[in-house]
Amino acid sequence: MTNRCLYAASFKTFCSEAPLAILGTLHRNYHGETLTTTDDAWLGEIQLLQQVLLPWTDEEAQIIFEYDIPRLGKRIDVVLLLRGIIFCLEFKVGKKEALQTDVEQVMDYALDLKNFHLYSHNRHIVPILIPTKLESATSDFQPSVYDDMIYNPMISGEEHLQGLISRVITHRGNHEGADTLDNWLISPYAPTPTIVEAARTLYENHSVEDITRHEADKASTDKTIHFLLQTIQRTKDQGRKSICFVTGVPGAGKTLVGLDVAIKQTYKEGELDKENGAVYLSGNGPLVAVLTEALARDNYQKCSLRGERKNLSDARREVREFIQIIHRYRDNMLAKIKNPVENGVVEIDPVKAVKLEATGYGEVEHVAIFDEAQRSWTHKRIADYLKRGGTYGNKLKVPNFPMSEAEFLIWSLDQREDWAVIICLVGGGQEINTGEAGITEWINALNNKFRHWDVYISDKLIEPEYAEGRVSEMLQHNNKVHFAEQLHLAVSMRSFRAENLSAFIHALLSFAPHAPSLYKEVEDKGYPIMLTRDMRKARAWLRKKARGTEQTGVLVTKVAARFKPLAVHILGQGDENAVHWFLEDKTDIRSSNYLEDAATEIQVQGLELDYACVLWDADMRYENRQWGFYKFNGKNKWNPERNTETQKYMLNAYRVLLTRARQGIVICVPFGNHRTTPEGFPQDPTRLPEFYDYTYNYLKSLGLQEL
């Protein structure tokens, strides 16, 4: 029996078997402790279906109980393979009505099979919700308007289920052969999880291999994780210090790799291993907040279902042990140093810290994983921050601080006297804030202060997105450098429809002549990139595209300014706003799905949506095959931005926004305001059509389809 389900049999075998015997099989194959309510529900489903399926017991039909969907971390109650049709059944035993969340749940199952389950791609899929005490059934049903062979969700009480299945078969109008049970169950399954879904599943002791897209020539996440864990073990055995740089295209799974290594290193066979633990650190406050809350909520709900007592606050505290904001980790080490710093040398103050035998003055973790390491601060930014006493809750003033953030983080791990490993997850072209150093500061620190550290990098780290292509030159005299191809993730997992989306976006932003051909490749893969000038059309497109619990949202850059005329509001600052925007469901007005609050690159970097609208403002404009950059003065005028470093951040902001969606995007470039006053002056000089028209025409010239 495959571990993808708890029970599978032909209709004939199922209908002739004793209900308690089938229940026993479900019990034997279930990993965990079942509750009385679960047993009652299973037994009720078995007895009902043994009656419902009688008309088809002489056919080549199969029934499957509790089919596992790794991407969702859930199981489909029952799958029926009958006459070439895949029925997904979700039971709500004892319920008298259908809830929207239940309908979305069964639709999610159907979409997941269609998108990721190879032997379901070209089959009709029929999702049916069964509140058993409902006294009616769907009478008007039809295939989805999306022409993807998925029927709109149907609803039926137990008394009408047989009739509904029969009418679906009649509606299909043919009797194509059914897949055999073995073939369907062992079908290649290639899910690409959202970062939130994946983190939840990892936290339940799955591996990245269980939950991410897998093709024989592209399983690079596993090779990367294996290489990192081997490097950690070798560094420990030899009592050395090592740093690894993991690079990858947007959405390639760098964060997943980091989380998986952190969990594997911290939890050995489900038990906390504090002696060899790892900490996952990110300077991305919204990402840490969203992941922490998602994991805590999920853990709290699972404990409740198992009858275990746990407070949500306890669940949050548990998660924060290995997912932390980098500023707090850094500030904890700052509290140990001599202050003020003398002669440009950072030293531990023995009055402020206890020296342990193995740890020295370092933190308890041997392994620190820095996500988005390219966003570490320059020396100037962290020195200015510490000079004024911080703005993130840290009131510790450290005048004349002599290090960049990267150098200080390496120094912090170097305080350990036994061994240490740093893993830097690096996105190329992803620096989006003033004072973010890129990879340069890390390499300078290794070259100048930490020559005893072993350096492991990918040969891809020499490309232009990283330190302007100077990495190879900067490391040429460092004899501790080791190149490893396993440290680059070349395949995007964010978009399962278009792995070359990031290449197209790069071409779009750099005016590459092959951008139109790359767009055609993306389009041919079934990934839509639509173009419009009307936010009403953009919202309507998003609402039409999203089904089940698929997530939509509006995105703008943080310097966008003239969005209010389009009825768009910027999501408020504060990580709790990002948590609500990403995690609340469609019934909550704080949810991204309401398409009222737009998130910026700061709030969405590292996270993703299914479908997104990128609202293109006048901050970045097409001007004779180059970008013009502007900042609004807050009153009546856009001023040119001349600083080349700031221009880079503004360009990268659009790179981040345009690669957030897994299944499709619509770009809205507004018309602007062409109206004039009675005196002949522009009614709104901050939204002149020429601020937008050239950008729109450039995007249209690439072949983007207009709404």
User: What share of the residues lie within helices?
Assistant: 25-40%
Show unreliable segments: 206-218
Mean pLDDT comes to 82
Radius of gyration: 28 Å
Sheet with the most strands, sense and barrel status = 8 strands, parallel
> Structural class, from helix and strand content?
alpha/beta
List how many beta strands DSSP finds: 26
Percent of residues in beta strands? 15-25%
- Give the N-terminus to C-terminus distance in angstroms: 49 Å
Global shape: globular
Oligomeric organization of the protein chains: single chain
Alpha plus pi helix count: 24
Structure overview:
The protein is α/β, with parallel strands linked by helices and 707 residues long. It contains 24 helices and 26 strands. The strands form five sheets. Strands 7, 10, 11, 12, 13, 14, 15 and 16 form an eight-stranded parallel beta sheet that branches. A seven-stranded parallel beta sheet has the order 19-20-18-21-25-17-26, sandwiched between helices. A hairpin with a 4-residue loop joins strand 22 and strand 23 (627-632). The protein is globular.
